[in-house]
Amino acid sequence: SEDYGGTPSEWRWGRAHMLNARHALFGFVPLLRDFTSLRIETDGNSRTVNKASIAGRGDRPFTQVAGPGVRAIMPLGDLSKARFIVAGGTSGNPYSRFFDNLLVAWRDIRYITFAADRAAAEKDAAGTLTLVPKSAVAK
Description:
7 strands
């Protein structure tokens, strides 16, 4: 009652069970931790298909501290039907609009698909990143 109010019918598991995903690099730096960590209400637990490990201690013992980083469905007979989702976003840069762009879809177990071909991939692309081997870069 103290934490969630006096009306049990209004209590939500997600309020107690928040994902606290720390940034791999900045999540342990006190001044950057809050800015770079992702938080969202989640469901699931360690005994469900939607795996969600909890802290189990402290003042918020139900905080989700681990879960699937990637979910994928790969129908080997027809890879054009493959679907996937990654936790958080497609960028580790907190300044990027892609830092947490997939967080809600990941939580809600919604998937995205691979483009069927290059033209389809380029049609809705936010941009193109070209990787060049170090040996090919002029010195």
